[in-house]
Amino acid sequence: MTDPPRLDERTVAGRLELLEELLSGLETTSGPTAERALDAVATLAEVYGEALARVVDRVTAASPELAAALADDVLLAHLFVLHGVSVGRAPAGEPGAAFIPLDTLVRRPATSTAAP
């Protein structure tokens, strides 16, 4: 089995622009289906953010140099900002900047029963 092809920086940027457009479209759409879709995206992002944080915790404990190297990747650095994952330094570029606006994925499902 071969690995799927990797996305280059230009393709990643295009996918992120598309994602932002799709999310903006959903946010301006009314109705329960749009609400459920946004809730699903927010929940998925929350779970993936937790997974990313756990990976970074383990990498940082094993190799602080590797964690710093991860932060040098533009996409990873922006994901760290988006999910509030600290790798000990701010990403290159604008501090606090992310490809996707930080408030885009912070929605919480209306049916969430998780304790804060």
Average pLDDT, rounded to a whole number, is: 79
Helical content stands at 55-70%
Unreliable stretches covering 5 or more consecutive residues: 112-116
Task: Report the span from N to C terminus.
Answer: 42 Å
Number of continuous helical runs: 4
Structural class: mainly alpha
Give the strand tally. Answer: 0
Please summarize the sheet with the most strands. none
Shape: globular
Strand portion, in percent?
A: under 5%
Radius of gyration: 16 Å
Structural commentary:
With 116 residues, this protein is mainly α. The protein is built from 4 helices and no strands. α2 packs across α3 and α2 crosses α4 (74-83). The longest helix has 31 residues, at 32-62. The N and C termini lie far apart (42 Å). The model is unreliable at 112-116 (pLDDT under 50).
Explain the layout of strands and helices.
Blueprint: H1 9-27, H2 32-62, H3 64-71, H4 74-83
Helix pairs in contact: 2-3, 2-4
